[in-house]
Amino acid sequence: MPTTKxxxxxxxxxxxxxxxxxxxHNLDAKVLENVAKQLIEVRxxxxxxxxVCGGGNIFRGLAGEAAGISRSQGDYMGMLATVINALALQSxxxxxxxxxxxxxxxxxxxxxxPFIRRRAxxxxxxxxxxxxxxGTGNPYFTTDSAAALRASEIEVDLLAKGTKVDGVYTxxxxxxxxxxxxxxVTYEEAIQKDLGIMDTAAFSLCRENKIPIIVFNFFKxxxxxxVLIGEPVGTLIKQD
Length: 240
Fold this sequence. Notes:
two-stranded antiparallel sheet
């Protein structure tokens, strides 16, 4: 294993990661395979890897309100969407020979294990890639909050948020050519400047439990490996 301050890492991926907007597929087999390969690459280096998937490629609770669905009901539907993504990623990982477990906040024993903290830690210690589905199991919480919660419960060394840009900027770099990238910010700065990395509840959990966050471009080849071996990649959010 490379010399690094990280060993156990939780990766947060949005549901949109699994989409292929060119083909219109919400779950694209090639994208799933590429995600799986990145995870296996860092697992084979000796890191303990777990992740939380969003469900926005399939359904968003907030969007359901426009269709007359209550916020609570919509959020539960969104949680089920995250389980679909988790199972799809599990299949992609196992097709490449990885050992995995899907654990859900909402019990559904026919398809996944219920989340039990000690069991999750044991799976990681045995070298399995653990995928957490169904968010926190409660409405009104985002999957960012679920990622921060699970990261706190299983005592990870890093919460890595994979995005389509190479870090956190002063403005949207896709829209503002003058946007500049932050190499490092504190939790307080991220909240005060409303940088849009995660919601306030997620930041608060990470701050209270001293879990650093790195935002990086997951779609750049081998970028997650570079993050974990300690190269200056992305934007680091932590206390001073």
